[in-house]
Protein 1
Amino acid sequence: MKFEKLYKNSNLILIIFIVFLLAQAFDQSFGWGINKIYPEIYFMTFGTKDEGWSEFIWFENGLIETIQITILLFTILILLNLYFLKKNLFESTLIKKFVVIEIFGLSYFFFEEISWGQHFINFDTFEFFLDKDNFFYNHQGEMNLHNTSRIFNEFPRIFVMIWCSLSIVIFKFTKLKNSKEFAIIIAPNIKLIFINYLLLIFIIPDLIFTKLGIIDFSELHIIENEIFKGFNLDTMLSIILSFNFFRLSEFQELLFAYYFMWHSLFLRSLYFK
């Protein structure tokens, strides 16, 4: 019960943090313009006419990425602790293989995020990744694979997105819940579904607006004689509803890491009484 209370409190902190991020990003993206149009209503803003995203929060080695890699490292250590101390208690080899695969998968996720240490040690990128004729040419000149090809970026991301946003939902409404092995692997605690739903909130609108091509960012500003007159409300609303007024992909990755952490903690709690 204490463990589930910790989970509940953790989710509460997460929600408060999300509200802060949304408020900050909204002000950063639209605050200057709204303040200029309606100063008596939107009387204070930290936004500027440059708009964009907060470098401290969203850019490389910023707040979001730092929290994310910290959570990933913590999760990897949790799984290593579980595997080496309790692997003999696993009900089947399938569970043991799952934990091993998850350790390797999250390690790849972690090391790719820090460009295999380049972000901290600042070593030069290997020439192998700088050759434009090479299949592994890195488009950002970094020491990682996910900026070289969709094979190493989009495909793993799609799999992780499905796992973190739909796994408990699928488990709950299918016959998979009748299998003890799959129950342990997929849903060590059914309350993980909260994070599933939270992720879907930040995934589905973006997919709808992006796939239908509803958003045209070039139409956001109303300019007359090179002077800003206001926002195109339809475009602005589309951007807000799809959560495209901040770095959504970075935020989704933070939620992926958060899901893996609590999934691993609940899985560990089954063997550490």
Protein 2
Amino acid sequence: MANPDVRRLRLWQDRIETEVEISGKGPPLVWLHGPWGLNQDRAFVDRLAAHHTIYAPRFPGTSRGDHDGVHALVGWYDLAVYHGELFDRLELAAPAVAGHSFGALLAAEIAAAAPRSVSRLVLIDPVGLWRDDLPVRNWMVIPEKARRAMLFAEPDGEAARRFFEVPSDPAERVEVLSQVVWSQACTGKFVWPIADRGFARRAHRIAAPSLIVWGQQDAIIAAPYAQEFARRIAGAKLQLIDRAGHCAHLEQADVVEKAVRGFLAG
């Protein structure tokens, strides 16, 4: 993200301090990052900022200096209300909302809890549904040697290399890796051990025009889940992305950006 404006907001009766990175110019678009943190999504957010003003909040507990903030929130109802408060403080009236993986589920839950608060909804490989015959893989416990192949269709490709890249300085490396681990812990609190917290019962509430984007080779949440989401969200459009795993927006950034931009412009 090129030189974003960083706002620090105290929310939830001053119990949570959140950083929101704001960049770009155009209609407002809220980006909700995946379980690995905002840093991993910056390249794609930069693309969206060419046509939108992006509001990218860090998930509670992942902002600098407030690692305990996540403990102030108990469940999904808290998360939805918290983000409503965040939208109010940012003076966002029914923005478009997009997210990836955990962030996509969060975007969908917000749209279901308060249908008038979201104008358009983009979900990229969302977690949140469960089939016993096709279990979702818990990304928090995947062995290190298997992670690249689980997240990317081309584990040796450029997108995977950038995703897993760490600084050469030992102290900086520890800081970066600890941020990734803690972000997974903060978000994982709300999805695991079984990645079904009842969204299927609430999905019918979503009124915003919705786009579902899914990597055909997603090894975390298999592609048949795309249809499961599409049939639960009225009128949802679905685009499957070939040669893309769970991080479709990073691995096939040009294709996903074009799909998202076209949808938001419509």
Protein 3
Amino acid sequence: MEYIKFLIEKARCYSLSTIVRLELESLVMGLLSVVPTIFGVALRATGSKLFFKQIDGFAWIQPRVTIIHAERIVSGTHLGINSGTYINGVGGIQFGNHVLIGNNVTISSGEHPINGAQPPIFSRLAIPKKIVINDDVWIGAGAVIMPGITLAKGTVIGANAVVTKDTEEYSIYVGVPARKIRNRQDESRH
């Protein structure tokens, strides 16, 4: 009974139409996320056209990708999202053109307030913080992009990095927290 009470209290923060849309988005994208082969990629691209706020091109979305609050996500052309990635658009996410996201990446545009003992953290609403991922960005496997971050044009984020600060154009970042190791234009490496 306490769980039902909790859900009702949470639901009061949303309109009925928002709840229905979020549930429909979750159902459709969840079912599409398990469809294999190129057929599944095509279905997920169609789903992204239906649920994203705007998408200018084709979204190549691999199986087992979770996207919530898609109505607050805008994308340019050529968005590639690999398996196991979690994207929460509660605070808004803007993807540029030619963005590649590795497997098991987390991009969440909302953070939970932690100050004070009451109410319990579990019952607090997320604070929306928009994420901007500019053109020609590659996010390596297992990386975490924290709320409110801007990834500059040409940024490369190394595997398992946790990005807590905005990046510089054409730079490579690695580690926890992510730190710049070099500029992509410094020398010609593979």
